[in-house]
Structures are given as structure tokens and as C-alpha cells.
Amino acid sequence: MKTYISILRGINVSGQKMIKMPELIKMYESLNFKKVKTYIQSGNVIFQDKKTNCPDLEKKISKQISIDFHFEVPVLVKEEKELITVLKNNPFLNKRKEDVTKLHVTFLSKEPELADLEKIKNGSYNGDEYIFFGKTIYLFCPNGYGRTKLTNNFFENKLKVVASTRNWNTINKLVEIAENTGKE
Fold first, then answer.
1. Per-residue model confidence as pLDDT tens digits over 57-85
2. What is 95-129 written as a DSSP string?
3. In terms of pTM, does the model score above 0.85?
4. Domains of the chain (ranges plus CATH)?
């Protein structure tokens, strides 16, 4: 069995697309996923399944959410090792030692096109910074994520991809839960 982390975009935000975590766990278990765990209410689910490619898991989960909860939710699935790599390679920590409360990671559904990246390259973002690493964007938001222009909607509109962001503490916790799930 392999450990995966799914990141659901936009559930339980401002009373929209509400899913209770026990119901979400039950839904994942109905898909025959094992050792299903959630972390906070924003759609972080750790689970195990036989080795499967992530896009197939994303489609399977998204389809079941639509059936069970009657709305569409973008789903990004990462293998445990991919999240560990994200954790180890944050340039805002490794090279600059920035305040972890100002760090976020935006996950993308696919690598953006170079032409789309060029469109945002020279923008002014009020001191906020981003660094691309494949399908991952590391964010440093010194004034807080609530004030940044570098939101999921910004990246989705400019890069034509699905984006979902988590704060640095959540990334750490997801890796911790995933590693412990693999040891059970």
C-alpha cells in the first residue's frame, strides 16, 4: 500500500461546499481506501491505496464527491514522497530562514506553460514573493496570506491550472500524519 495526500480545493469556506469530516472519511472508505484520516476542515485527506497514478485518484475522488455531496470540487493528489520533497526544498527556509508563519505552498494540477509564467514574472505583488518548483509554488507573504494578490484564483486565472494553497504548518502536519500512517 502507498500513502497519498489529497487536497480538496474550496470546501468549508465561508459556508460554501460544506462537507463534514466524518462524512468525507466514510466516502473515501467507500472507495476502498485504507487508513483514511483528515486534517482540519479544509479538505486534507491522508489515505492508503494500491499504487495508482495520482490523476486517476483525483478523478475517482472528484467523481465520488460529486455523487455524494452534489457539487464539484477540484482535487489534487500527492504521493507522500512528493510532499516530503516539498517540505525539504522550501527556498524561503533553506536559503533565507523566513518566518514560517508567512510561508505557504500552492499546489498546481500541472506545470504551467512558460508563456503563462512570463505573464506574471514582472508583476508587483506588494512585497509578496513566489518561487516555482514544477507543480509547486512556494509563497512568502510578509503581510499575511489574507492580504496577498497571489491567491488560488490569481494563479488559476493567469496560469490556466487548478491551484490549492496550504500554510506551512499544514504542510508539516500532513507530512507527519502521512509518515505515521505508513508506519501503522
1. 999 999 999 999 999 999 999 999 999 99
2. TT---GGGEEEEEESSPPPHHHHHHHHT---TT-E
3. yes
4. 2-80+172-183 (3.30.70.1280), 84-168 (3.30.70)
